[in-house]
Amino acid sequence: MLGDTVITTRIDAVIDWGRQSSLWPFVFGTACCAIEFMATAASRYDIARFGAEVLRFSPRHADLLVVAGTVSMKQAPILKQIYDQMPEPRWVIAMGACASSGGFYDNYTTLQGIDAIVPVDVYIAGCPPRPEALLDAVVEIQKMLWKEPALEPRHPDFKGVLDD
Prior knowledge:
32% helix
């Protein structure tokens, strides 16, 4: 049917196309932002349109970490362990004011932004942010995929407060 048809492309383009259309999120939901994520995954907003509907409950099968809500100091090592268990390449979204900057919890028990523990690729503002903001963040991650080399490690020099 195709005869002598030849298609040429770069291997990065093929890999990035596959990754863009098949993000597998792992949701670290601790507060009201997790409810907004649930709304985004439901039929009204339908995150499946963007190829991110396969929610994973094992970090070893996920490549997108969505931290939705307040992270306490006791949860910080758990978040770091989940991030370390995810295969490369991996992306992180800090969803809401609490995950981005601690929100209005300015005390000793609340982590003042998850970027002290893991590298964050996209921050979503709001308390809680609307589902459309999460969809915009997923689109931003997809745009990042096209700009990065497919086979190079991401954030090789990041050192968080829990790193040795």
